[in-house]
Amino acid sequence: MVESQSNPKKMMWTTLAMMAFSTVWGFGNVVNGFVYFDGTKVTFSWIIMFLLYFVPYALMVGELGATFKNAEGGVSSWVEATMGAKWAYYAGWTYWACHIVYISSKGTGGLRAMAWGILGNTLWYDSLPTAWTQFATLVVFLFFCWVTSRGIQVLKGLATVAGTSMFIMSILFIIMMFTAPAINPHANYYSINFNWKSLMPTFNIKYLTSLSILVFAVGGCEKISPYVNKVKNPSKNFPKAMMALAIMVMISAILGTFAMALMFDPQIVNKNLNEYISNGPYMAFQRLGEYYHVGGLFMYIYSWCNVIGQFSTLVISIDAPLRMLLGSKQAKEFIPKKLLKVNKHGAYINGIWMVVILSGSLIAAQALLPDAQSVMAQLVKLNSTTMPMRYLWVFAAYIALRKQQAKFETSYQMTKSQPLAYTAGVWCFGITAACCIFGIYSPDSFTLFLNIITPIILVALGLILPAIKKHEDVAILD
Known about the structure:
disordered N terminus
């Protein structure tokens, strides 16, 4: 025990909490919550989401990570150990398929960030015909697919730098916004009502169909699972780190919401929803610069950090999920041989072509939308509907783990109570599935069509590939 406590390789729980915070949280989550949930009315929803969803989710990830501490495949490894190889393939496929929509959004987001970084606004960009902006997005997407196929690593290193700077700016935004009235008391600020009515949401169709935005915002903490056993005394300190993470994220979300409320009137936001979904973060940093008499300085810094972040994340999102899927142990058993082809640069070239066809088709289809702002708004909604689907496998693996508890040894458990563990797993699975299903709805018929057809195509393809592989194996035997 003494050796473990003095081992310099073991990290403090506070370090893990900060690592997880920077991984899970971002300024865009604050803006989306404010825009979709009528300003400060999102406060109650954030608190409930953290207490009843995020905390048990994070603790379940901790137990899975501690149990399968030597597993390198993350969620797929957990599913394989608890549910079998075929289910592990489906888990890996889901993780990859969710990124098809995410990849489409990175090119769009990067071009929008460039418009702000070069022109200081998006008036010209948003006035272009949608076919033009989508063609430009397609060209950018194809270029970075080529970059990925050549094994070029430089942008991957920039992703860490951009991510760190964006995280720092998110925290600075909150601090500087609350100090702005003291520095520039004569600027225009909106007043915040801290009464019950202004903090409670309006429970209607819009609310139910937007909840996936909040689930998407707090998801992804399974990325920190490899670090569970690198913490000193994980059974005691990992829950501390997760509770600290939940508190930090909740404080950041609530204070960020109030900071936004000093700047923007929710009634005006609701009348120009697509504009604020697309440009909200830039408008916020633009206004912050005006309060501090530095013009657009903060907005330009944020924009160029975002350009680097969006494009480097695009490369990583093309490459990393594909390697996780095609490089897994299940790939040879369930995926056709042609998709496993690797070029001289070590890239899965036919897999990249599959990404080109699927993400490229989505980019092309969105040329039918009325303008670039509509494209951005739709991608935010579609991502919030599809990306949380991968979290379902975390909860499925956790339920399966607790059913076979005697088979596995672990240094940490969320709870000793089996009924409580089952309840937590089923609850989080149900909430995630319900939010994904409700999130599909849209009053716009074309958006509704894409929200329905995209998951269907991706799920169908995931089911078809093992059938093709089986036919391939039979043909070889014959």
